[in-house]
Amino acid sequence: MSQVFREYLKKVGSGQHTKQDLTRSEAAIAAQLMLGAEATPAQIGAFLIAHRIKRPTGEELAGFLDAYDQFAEPIAAIEDLPQQPWVFGVPYDGRSRTAPFLPFMALLLSAAGQPVILHGGDCMPTKYGLSLVDIWADLRINLRALDLSQRQQLLQQTHFTFYYTPRHFPASQALNDYRDQIGKRPPLATLDLMWNPYGGQSRVIIGYVHPPTEMMIRAAFALRGVTDFLLVKGLEGSTDLRLSQTTIVALPENPPGSDTPYLKLNPHHYGVNNTDPPLVSRATYQQLFQDFINDPQGDLPEIYQAALLWNGGFYLWQSGLCGDIQTGIEMTVDYWRSGKIKSQWEFIQNWVTTATS
């Protein structure tokens, strides 16, 4: 048993009136003791559920991320990329109600010259939803098998890569069983969104649901000197924009001409369908994705086409590759219908197949 960890557990788990927040350095040590398995299973489980009940602070999240940096080897920085990479942070336990459009965006953006880094692991608690790595596997792109240098080369040559945590950050994977046993997402799930596996300058784009999460992330990023980010209140906590209602996007600071650090994106203003794309089943989604790629002149169901254009328009605009969302929507149509997205998929698929054969 770790006596040091025991003291931290007492602080966060002492009850409504006597609980105490950890300092950044204490949180870093607590995370190190969990990641290094120096704390006992009983201590770790108790800490995670107590910390969820207490609610983490930005300072604690900053300390946890400090520890993550010590246990995970990042993808090395690349100097000759056309633009600063974007690192997307979405819930590792996947999607269960709505169809993920981040893989579509990864192909679109990387084809257009905006480098994209995704990260995550396999199907995991508490949602056990459709994971990103499984989506790519269904597209015959095995992103589990690459070593770290290959992931860097993939980013350099295709402007896309995927950081697979079970292989390159195994210490974090050892904590996943606790999520299942607790039955609720612990604060570690917020770290999944915030953590950046890239060793150079990048923009972090994070999905979230609850307003307090935004404040915690802002506080943690301020302590860690992270100033380039977007926080997207998207579908199921992802970075996918909503079609059924206005999506709120939090910015680091007020944009020019605005007195608030928020964008409020209403799809109705752009004539976009107002229904969120459902995830009927993994098999249906796989067929949808393959039809989208392999038959760019075909008819994608209207609901899914709307999600593609709405998300593509926004993210192409944010990348600076066009001047506004409407132009981004038109660019998305061009990249899709002209087969540029299909060519990018084939490029990535051939690269990964060659590298792992």
CA radius of gyration is 20 Å
Architecture of the largest domain in CATH? 3-Layer(aba) Sandwich
Q: CATH homologous superfamily of the largest domain - what is it?
A: Nucleoside phosphorylase/phosphoribosyltransferase catalytic domain
| Unreliable residue stretches | none
| General shape | globular
User: Can you tell me the number of structural domains?
Assistant: 2
Alpha-beta classification? alpha/beta
Mean pLDDT: 95
Strand content: 5-15%
- Total count of strands: 7
Biggest sheet architecture: 7 strands, mixed
The helicity comes to 40-55%
Q: What is the distance, rounded to the nearest whole angstrom, between the alpha carbons of the first and last residues?
A: 45 Å
Outline:
The chain has 357 residues and is of the alpha/beta class.
Describe the fold and architecture.
The chain is α/β, with parallel strands linked by helices and 357 residues long. The chain folds into two domains: 3-71, Transferase, Pyrimidine Nucleoside Phosphorylase, Chain A, domain 3, CATH 1.20.970; 86-356, Nucleoside phosphorylase/phosphoribosyltransferase catalytic domain (Pyrimidine Nucleoside Phosphorylase, Chain A, domain 2, 3-Layer(aba) Sandwich), CATH 3.40.1030.10. It contains 16 helices and seven strands. Strands 3-2-1-4-5-6-7 form a seven-stranded mixed beta sheet. Helix 2 packs across helix 4, helix 5 (102-112) packs across helix 16 (340-356) and helix 14 crosses helix 15. The protein is globular and about 65 Å long. The N and C termini lie far apart (45 Å). The mean pLDDT is 95.
